[in-house]
């Protein structure tokens, strides 16, 4: 039988990440012998060797590397299912909307103002996060809906409704010569040696190569811009968080950015549907239609 239990997947992940049975057992809070037996049983049931064991230690086989990747996804899905189930069982819970701090501020404010009047609406709790975190919050069940941005955010697997299309601006130190320009191009902002573009971490935590400073939060980025250490190009509506030491200049050839509201396609929540409907009524398309 190929059915896998979450317990044995957690055991395997601990060993695969520690590459040491003793450390994995300590991490799991169990003795080493039952952990070793559990991994042996798992290998026997799957009919493959997951780990190479010798005097020098433990190493993953090709099959083990596949299971480590798949096990992480499976455990995350199980945890998310449990979290969403608990939340669905609480009739008093608010709807959690995740959004990048400082992004789409005016649209978010209008949505929060309009949402209570929608039939089936629930109270909305805003969960502010850093760049790229909305997808993980949606998948884990810690958020019900999210405001996200195409083409920057990971929208794979979500249902979405387009809300706004906008251009981008460069956020520059107020004293820099480019800050006095009426408009800029991508070539202008990509070739400023004294202001290398900041680098955000990839999904795996690593950083792309480049001279720009490594950042993890928008507050770090804002201060680095104010200090004259970097610049950034962002959607025009995100400039709401800019400091007095910053200047925003339109970047005329930067790709347009689409703000979307995203949710899990499996959602059957009436409150989620109500919030999405309210957001759709605030979209650029809806506003244009009402004005014509």
TrEMBL record:
One of its GO terms (cellular component) is protein-DNA complex. Gene3D superfamilies: 3.40.190.290, Winged helix-like DNA-binding domain superfamily/Winged helix DNA-binding domain (1.10.10.10). Residues 4-61 form the HTH lysR-type domain. GO terms for molecular function: DNA binding; DNA-binding transcription factor activity. PROSITE patterns: HTH_LYSR. Keywords: DNA-binding, Transcription, Transcription regulation. SUPFAM superfamilies: Periplasmic binding protein-like II (SSF53850), Winged helix' DNA-binding domain (SSF46785). It comes from the Bacteria. Belongs to the LysR transcriptional regulatory family. This is Hca operon transcriptional activator. It comes from Streptomonospora litoralis. The gene is hcaR1.
